Amino acid sequence: MNYFPLTDQDRKAMREVIGIKETRELFSDLPADPAYFPLDDLPPALAENRLLRDFQDILRKNTFPEYTSFLGAGAYDHFIPEVVNHLSSRGEFVTPYTPYQPEASQGSLQALFEYQTMLCMLTGLDIANSSLYDGGTAAAEAVLLAMRFSRNKKRCLVAENIHPEYRSIIETYLQNLDARIDTVPFSPETGKIKAEDLRDRMGEDVAGFLFQSPNFLGVIEDSQEISDIVHQFKKASSIQIVAEALSLPLLVPPAQGNVDIVAGEAQSFGLPLWYGGPYLGFMSTRKEYLRQLPGRIVGQTRDREGNPGYVLTLSTREQHIRREKATSNICTNQAWCALRAAIYLSTMGRRGLSRIARINHQNTAYFIREAEKLHRLKVRYRENIFNEVVLSAPPRSVDRLFDELKSRKILAGIKLAPFFPQLADSLLLNFTEKHTKEDIDRLIQALGGFHV
């Protein structure tokens, strides 16, 4: 069968059938100016050597390597061993999309099986799926999972101090469903959820409570206290979101805090900050949630001769089964990102992960100790933190502080005003193992030189 592009006569006939004169009428709801751009000014095609030179000229304009960055807030700059790049770039891992044929995909399936196993070890829970899209959609999937498990209770509680973008995604997921999200506030004094407010908002109609720990402000929540409150109500789930996965090797496993569902972002495990992606959502739960779990589970079996093999044991995405029966309607495959995470976790090992996590915390503690010597600035939360710090400036001076540090080629985190008006005078800074003592001292010196 031949395929030919539409001719002008074909297009004319189509417009007559539809009842329009110009193709652009199909886009009349878009603003006129950006809907169509003239192509007359496009330059002619370049030879390959000239094109590469032009790209190199553009690359030289990138000044980011000259900056010292303390950005975090859900996207973390961690060291990635070169073996992760090397192994994950092999053709047999890069070219397959998804392991539909297990007999031809044993390597990929085994890697995903190992990834699931290591996530269970980190969270302490029974089962983990073989990846979701990203942390925000994983949070939304966790809410839907809790609602299904609760036998369709329609209300879920969400902590105010979770990642603001995660909350927006949850609201987008639920806006056209018969579901309701209520907020549990946090204390500006401690940065943590108020247990009494959680008790007041819980009820028999609540499917679960979603909180983040370490939360968006870097503070570690009391998962045991939270879970005890939630579990006073039948079929209510305690849901912990983890945006900084490298906290898992250091902190008490969520299962020990009686958490039912752990979901979030695994970008810290071997995925660089490539202009905002790709990211890697994860989810781990207790075994009683198995039949409602979104995504896929790789299982280990044996063939007729007794040799171990791997298969997709559970596949409840809409590309595998009927849409109305699916537990997830996201079909984008993150298996390659999960592969990188599996390679990273295997390379680092238990001791390596723990050591890197401790360096993150130690760098943060060093900054807090030195920042306490500053007179005009204040660390808002000093205890129960992992690798992020809220730094408060005098009223109406945070913008000047941010701009002054930027002029010194220091990216001092993010401003909290757009997300939390009660913290409008504050910045959120992140510290990882890639920061040296000299980097932190340079930041402290710049902060000390700031004049209100």
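^ that was protein a. below is b, sequence first then the tokens
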Amino acid sequence: MALALTAPTGGAVLGTAATTILRIHDPDPDFTPPQVTGLQWHGTATAITSIVLSFSKPLQATSASNPADYQLVDLRTSGLANPSGSLAVGFFPPVYNAATDTVTLFPAQPLAAGHFYRIQVDGMGVAPILDLAGNALAGASAGMTGTNYVALIGEGKATALHRFGLPATCGF
């Protein structure tokens, strides 16, 4: 940042150097990466219509709303992490809410009950999820900057829910 001194008052006089470089040093920089702290989905007993991811701190709006930073895959009924026949699920652009540090994903079609779905949030790659200080997502565990967050969800009375990195519960 350049600093320019002009128009001195009170009898002060400028010397020959009227400009200089100003460097501001942050004595306490933020190195704490953001993390996914919650995952909720909304809909009915037969379909998921939105997925809300909560983050531990504010995100850069451009990275939080970048569709390339999220993957949603229909794993069918197997519950396996990568079964044959799994399909990428399209969704509308993510919606970032800076007031609540949440991102909402809206699938292009409601997600069917009785299926498992894998959600991945990118903490690495060309344009990962970043906080306001520029720290990349720590998705795998606390402090592991630049790692992806992965969760497996399902909805329906006959479907068990598993969340990697979060406590297991059942969706009904």
